[in-house]
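Example S7 (C-alpha coordinates).
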Protein backbone atom coordinates (compact mmCIF):
# COMPACT_ATOMS: atom_id res chain seq x y z
CA UNK A 1 0.00 0.00 0.00
CA UNK A 2 1.36 3.40 -0.97
CA UNK A 3 0.32 6.81 0.33
CA UNK A 4 -2.34 7.11 -2.35
CA UNK A 5 -3.94 3.84 -1.24
CA UNK A 6 -3.87 5.05 2.32
CA UNK A 7 -5.75 8.20 1.46
CA UNK A 8 -8.31 6.22 -0.50
CA UNK A 9 -8.83 3.87 2.45
CA UNK A 10 -9.35 6.82 4.76
CA UNK A 11 -11.89 8.44 2.42
CA UNK A 12 -13.81 5.17 2.07
CA UNK A 13 -14.00 4.64 5.82
CA UNK A 14 -14.98 8.29 6.37
CA UNK A 15 -17.86 7.93 3.90
CA UNK A 16 -19.10 4.79 5.66
CA UNK A 17 -18.91 6.61 8.99
CA UNK A 18 -20.88 9.55 7.63
CA UNK A 19 -23.59 7.23 6.29
CA UNK A 20 -23.88 5.47 9.64
CA UNK A 21 -22.58 2.16 8.28
CA UNK A 22 -19.82 2.04 10.91
CA UNK A 23 -19.27 3.70 14.28
CA UNK A 24 -16.51 6.14 15.20
CA UNK A 25 -14.83 3.36 17.20
CA UNK A 26 -14.91 1.03 14.21
CA UNK A 27 -13.55 3.76 11.97
CA UNK A 28 -10.58 4.41 14.28
CA UNK A 29 -9.90 0.70 14.66
CA UNK A 30 -9.96 0.01 10.91
CA UNK A 31 -7.56 2.84 10.11
CA UNK A 32 -5.20 1.88 12.93
CA UNK A 33 -5.28 -1.80 11.96
CA UNK A 34 -4.52 -1.05 8.32
CA UNK A 35 -1.56 1.16 9.18
CA UNK A 36 -0.17 -1.16 11.87
CA UNK A 37 -0.59 -4.23 9.68
CA UNK A 38 1.29 -2.78 6.76
CA UNK A 39 4.01 -1.37 9.03
CA UNK A 40 4.60 -4.87 10.42
CA UNK A 41 4.35 -6.83 7.17
CA UNK A 42 5.92 -4.41 4.70
CA UNK A 43 4.98 -4.63 1.00
CA UNK A 44 3.04 -7.59 -0.32
CA UNK A 45 5.63 -8.17 -3.06
CA UNK A 46 9.23 -7.09 -3.23
CA UNK A 47 10.67 -6.97 -6.72
CA UNK A 48 14.50 -6.79 -7.26
CA UNK A 49 15.83 -6.92 -3.74
CA UNK A 50 13.64 -7.72 -0.80
CA UNK A 51 15.26 -5.15 1.45
CA UNK A 52 14.72 -2.34 -1.01
CA UNK A 53 11.10 -3.33 -1.53
CA UNK A 54 10.46 -3.46 2.20
CA UNK A 55 11.93 -0.06 2.64
CA UNK A 56 9.63 1.33 -0.04
CA UNK A 57 6.56 -0.08 1.69
CA UNK A 58 7.51 1.36 5.04
CA UNK A 59 8.35 4.65 3.41
CA UNK A 60 4.87 4.87 1.90
CA UNK A 61 3.21 4.07 5.20
CA UNK A 62 5.47 6.48 7.04
CA UNK A 63 4.27 9.13 4.63
CA UNK A 64 0.69 8.25 5.56
CA UNK A 65 1.66 8.38 9.25
CA UNK A 66 3.17 11.81 8.90
CA UNK A 67 0.15 13.31 7.15
CA UNK A 68 -2.51 15.04 9.19
CA UNK A 69 -5.70 13.36 8.08
CA UNK A 70 -8.82 15.52 8.10
CA UNK A 71 -11.23 14.77 10.93
CA UNK A 72 -13.88 12.25 10.06
CA UNK A 73 -17.26 13.88 9.40
CA UNK A 74 -19.93 13.32 12.03
CA UNK A 75 -22.36 10.49 11.28
CA UNK A 76 -25.73 11.46 9.81
CA UNK A 77 -28.73 10.38 11.80
CA UNK A 78 -31.89 10.12 9.73
CA UNK A 79 -35.32 9.62 11.30
CA UNK A 80 -36.77 6.15 11.09
CA UNK A 81 -38.19 5.86 7.60
CA UNK A 82 -39.88 2.48 7.87
CA UNK A 83 -42.51 3.76 10.30
CA UNK A 84 -45.86 2.67 8.80
CA UNK A 85 -48.03 5.43 7.41
CA UNK A 86 -51.80 5.57 7.27
CA UNK A 87 -52.74 7.91 4.47
CA UNK A 88 -56.29 9.25 4.31
CA UNK A 89 -57.00 10.96 1.00
CA UNK A 90 -59.81 13.51 1.27
CA UNK A 91 -60.94 14.52 -2.24
CA UNK A 92 -63.24 17.45 -2.93
CA UNK A 93 -66.04 16.30 -5.28
CA UNK A 94 -67.70 19.72 -5.53
CA UNK A 95 -68.67 21.09 -8.93
CA UNK A 96 -65.80 23.60 -8.85
CA UNK A 97 -63.36 20.72 -9.31
CA UNK A 98 -64.91 20.03 -12.73
CA UNK A 99 -64.32 23.51 -14.13
CA UNK A 100 -61.81 23.68 -16.93
CA UNK A 101 -59.37 26.52 -17.38
CA UNK A 102 -60.60 29.49 -19.39
CA UNK A 103 -57.10 30.09 -20.77
CA UNK A 104 -58.06 28.44 -24.04
CA UNK A 105 -55.64 25.57 -23.55
CA UNK A 106 -57.04 22.08 -23.47
CA UNK A 107 -56.31 21.01 -19.91
CA UNK A 108 -58.17 18.46 -17.78
CA UNK A 109 -60.11 19.94 -14.85
CA UNK A 110 -58.57 20.02 -11.37
CA UNK A 111 -60.51 16.91 -10.36
CA UNK A 112 -58.67 14.74 -12.89
CA UNK A 113 -55.30 16.06 -11.78
CA UNK A 114 -56.22 15.29 -8.17
CA UNK A 115 -57.21 11.76 -9.17
CA UNK A 116 -53.86 11.28 -10.91
CA UNK A 117 -52.00 12.53 -7.84
CA UNK A 118 -53.84 10.16 -5.49
CA UNK A 119 -53.27 7.17 -7.76
CA UNK A 120 -49.58 7.99 -8.10
CA UNK A 121 -49.00 8.47 -4.37
CA UNK A 122 -50.82 5.24 -3.50
CA UNK A 123 -48.97 3.14 -6.05
CA UNK A 124 -45.50 4.56 -5.39
CA UNK A 125 -45.81 4.51 -1.60
CA UNK A 126 -46.81 0.83 -1.78
CA UNK A 127 -43.52 0.05 -3.54
CA UNK A 128 -41.62 1.85 -0.77
CA UNK A 129 -43.21 -0.20 2.00
CA UNK A 130 -45.92 -2.82 2.16
CA UNK A 131 -46.76 -1.64 5.68
CA UNK A 132 -48.41 1.60 4.52
CA UNK A 133 -52.21 1.67 4.33
CA UNK A 134 -54.64 3.90 2.45
CA UNK A 135 -58.11 5.27 3.08
CA UNK A 136 -60.40 7.54 1.09
CA UNK A 137 -63.01 10.16 1.91
CA UNK A 138 -65.11 12.29 -0.43
CA UNK A 139 -65.84 15.93 0.39
CA UNK A 140 -69.33 16.52 -0.97
CA UNK A 141 -72.14 18.30 0.85
CA UNK A 142 -70.41 16.79 3.87
CA UNK A 143 -67.40 14.50 4.34
CA UNK A 144 -68.12 10.86 3.51
CA UNK A 145 -65.74 8.05 4.45
CA UNK A 146 -65.58 5.71 1.45
CA UNK A 147 -62.69 3.32 2.07
CA UNK A 148 -61.29 1.90 5.28
CA UNK A 149 -57.52 1.74 5.64
CA UNK A 150 -56.02 -1.07 3.57
CA UNK A 151 -52.40 -1.93 2.73
CA UNK A 152 -53.51 -2.79 -0.81
CA UNK A 153 -53.53 0.35 -2.99
CA UNK A 154 -55.75 -1.42 -5.55
CA UNK A 155 -59.07 -0.59 -3.85
CA UNK A 156 -57.94 3.03 -3.47
CA UNK A 157 -57.16 3.35 -7.17
CA UNK A 158 -60.42 1.66 -8.17
CA UNK A 159 -62.51 3.83 -5.86
CA UNK A 160 -60.83 7.07 -6.97
CA UNK A 161 -61.48 6.15 -10.61
CA UNK A 162 -65.19 5.73 -9.85
CA UNK A 163 -65.58 9.18 -8.33
CA UNK A 164 -66.66 12.23 -10.28
CA UNK A 165 -67.56 15.82 -9.39
CA UNK A 166 -71.14 16.27 -8.21
CA UNK A 167 -72.98 19.12 -9.91
CA UNK A 168 -75.33 19.47 -6.95
CA UNK A 169 -72.47 20.19 -4.56
CA UNK A 170 -72.16 23.96 -4.70
CA UNK A 171 -69.25 26.01 -3.43
CA UNK A 172 -70.58 26.35 0.06
CA UNK A 173 -68.56 26.20 3.26
CA UNK A 174 -67.94 22.70 4.53
CA UNK A 175 -67.78 21.37 8.07
CA UNK A 176 -64.64 19.22 8.38
CA UNK A 177 -65.38 18.17 11.97
CA UNK A 178 -67.13 14.88 10.96
CA UNK A 179 -64.06 13.84 8.94
CA UNK A 180 -61.73 14.30 11.91
CA UNK A 181 -64.24 12.70 14.30
CA UNK A 182 -64.33 9.59 12.11
CA UNK A 183 -60.56 9.54 11.71
CA UNK A 184 -60.04 9.74 15.46
CA UNK A 185 -62.12 6.56 15.83
CA UNK A 186 -60.03 4.73 13.19
CA UNK A 187 -56.55 5.35 14.62
CA UNK A 188 -54.66 4.03 17.61
CA UNK A 189 -53.96 7.05 19.80
CA UNK A 190 -51.33 5.36 22.06
CA UNK A 191 -49.32 4.37 18.99
CA UNK A 192 -49.55 7.88 17.52
CA UNK A 193 -48.47 9.38 20.82
CA UNK A 194 -45.05 7.67 20.59
CA UNK A 195 -42.40 9.10 18.31
CA UNK A 196 -41.75 6.56 15.56
CA UNK A 197 -44.74 4.45 16.59
CA UNK A 198 -47.04 5.17 13.66
CA UNK A 199 -47.84 8.02 11.30
CA UNK A 200 -51.29 9.13 10.18
CA UNK A 201 -51.57 11.65 7.35
CA UNK A 202 -54.55 13.44 5.89
CA UNK A 203 -53.92 14.50 2.29
CA UNK A 204 -56.69 16.97 1.49
CA UNK A 205 -57.41 18.05 -2.10
CA UNK A 206 -59.71 21.09 -1.99
CA UNK A 207 -61.06 23.18 -4.86
CA UNK A 208 -64.09 25.24 -3.86
CA UNK A 209 -64.37 28.90 -2.93
CA UNK A 210 -66.13 28.42 0.38
CA UNK A 211 -63.77 28.34 3.36
CA UNK A 212 -64.22 25.18 5.47
CA UNK A 213 -64.80 25.30 9.20
CA UNK A 214 -64.98 23.07 12.29
CA UNK A 215 -68.24 22.92 14.20
CA UNK A 216 -66.28 21.06 16.88
CA UNK A 217 -62.51 21.20 17.32
CA UNK A 218 -62.18 18.37 19.86
CA UNK A 219 -61.05 15.64 17.43
CA UNK A 220 -58.91 18.07 15.43
CA UNK A 221 -57.08 19.34 18.51
CA UNK A 222 -56.58 15.81 19.81
CA UNK A 223 -55.02 14.64 16.54
CA UNK A 224 -52.89 17.75 16.05
CA UNK A 225 -51.52 17.23 19.56
CA UNK A 226 -50.07 13.84 18.61
CA UNK A 227 -46.51 13.67 17.21
CA UNK A 228 -47.52 11.08 14.64
CA UNK A 229 -50.28 13.13 12.95
CA UNK A 230 -49.80 15.27 9.83
CA UNK A 231 -52.17 17.05 7.46
CA UNK A 232 -51.09 18.12 3.98
CA UNK A 233 -53.33 20.30 1.82
CA UNK A 234 -53.45 20.85 -1.92
CA UNK A 235 -55.61 23.82 -2.95
CA UNK A 236 -57.00 24.40 -6.43
CA UNK A 237 -58.15 28.07 -6.42
CA UNK A 238 -61.20 28.83 -8.52
CA UNK A 239 -60.71 31.14 -11.47
CA UNK A 240 -62.53 34.40 -10.94
CA UNK A 241 -62.49 34.12 -7.16
CA UNK A 242 -61.57 37.29 -5.31
CA UNK A 243 -58.09 37.70 -3.91
CA UNK A 244 -59.62 37.99 -0.45
CA UNK A 245 -61.32 34.59 -0.86
CA UNK A 246 -58.02 32.94 -1.79
CA UNK A 247 -56.30 34.58 1.19
CA UNK A 248 -59.03 33.44 3.58
CA UNK A 249 -58.77 29.90 2.22
CA UNK A 250 -55.01 29.72 2.65
CA UNK A 251 -55.24 31.30 6.09
CA UNK A 252 -57.66 28.60 7.22
CA UNK A 253 -55.40 25.73 6.16
CA UNK A 254 -52.31 27.42 7.59
CA UNK A 255 -54.04 27.70 10.94
CA UNK A 256 -54.42 23.91 11.06
CA UNK A 257 -50.69 23.81 11.78
CA UNK A 258 -49.78 27.19 13.31
CA UNK A 259 -46.12 26.20 13.79
CA UNK A 260 -45.70 25.23 10.14
CA UNK A 261 -43.43 22.42 11.28
CA UNK A 262 -45.53 19.37 10.51
CA UNK A 263 -47.62 19.99 7.42
CA UNK A 264 -47.26 20.99 3.78
CA UNK A 265 -49.58 23.43 2.02
CA UNK A 266 -49.52 23.53 -1.79
CA UNK A 267 -51.58 26.15 -3.60
CA UNK A 268 -51.89 25.82 -7.35
CA UNK A 269 -52.11 28.88 -9.54
CA UNK A 270 -55.68 29.54 -10.67
CA UNK A 271 -56.19 27.90 -14.04
CA UNK A 272 -53.08 25.77 -13.74
CA UNK A 273 -54.07 22.56 -11.93
CA UNK A 274 -51.23 20.70 -13.67
CA UNK A 275 -48.89 22.20 -11.06
CA UNK A 276 -50.05 19.44 -8.73
CA UNK A 277 -47.58 17.12 -10.48
CA UNK A 278 -44.68 18.83 -8.70
CA UNK A 279 -46.55 18.81 -5.40
CA UNK A 280 -47.13 15.07 -5.73
CA UNK A 281 -43.39 14.47 -5.73
CA UNK A 282 -42.91 16.34 -2.42
CA UNK A 283 -45.85 14.53 -0.80
CA UNK A 284 -44.17 11.17 -1.41
CA UNK A 285 -41.55 11.92 1.24
CA UNK A 286 -41.99 10.36 4.66
CA UNK A 287 -43.20 13.12 7.02
CA UNK A 288 -40.66 12.12 9.67
CA UNK A 289 -37.80 12.67 7.25
CA UNK A 290 -38.80 15.60 5.08
CA UNK A 291 -37.72 19.18 5.71
CA UNK A 292 -39.96 21.78 7.26
CA UNK A 293 -41.69 23.35 4.26
CA UNK A 294 -40.61 26.90 5.04
CA UNK A 295 -36.97 25.71 5.13
CA UNK A 296 -37.00 24.00 1.73
CA UNK A 297 -35.09 25.57 -1.09
CA UNK A 298 -34.93 24.27 -4.64
CA UNK A 299 -32.17 25.20 -7.06
CA UNK A 300 -30.77 23.89 -10.33
CA UNK A 301 -27.40 25.43 -9.60
CA UNK A 302 -24.45 23.22 -8.64
CA UNK A 303 -23.92 23.67 -4.89
CA UNK A 304 -20.54 24.93 -3.70
CA UNK A 305 -18.05 22.17 -2.90
CA UNK A 306 -17.82 23.46 0.63
CA UNK A 307 -21.44 22.51 1.32
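Recovered sequence:
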Amino acid sequence: MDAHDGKRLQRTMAAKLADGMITQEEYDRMIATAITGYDAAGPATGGGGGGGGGGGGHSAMNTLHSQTLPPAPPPRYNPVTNTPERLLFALDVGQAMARRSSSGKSRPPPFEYAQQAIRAIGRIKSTMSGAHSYGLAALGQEPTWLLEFSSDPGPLVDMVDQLSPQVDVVDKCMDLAPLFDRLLQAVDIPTLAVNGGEVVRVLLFYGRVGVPYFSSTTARDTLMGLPGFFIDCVIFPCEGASERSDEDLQSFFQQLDPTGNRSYLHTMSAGHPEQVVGSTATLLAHPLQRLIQKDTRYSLETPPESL
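Notes on this example. The beta strands are 85-92, 133-139, 143-150, 199-206, 229-235, 265-267.
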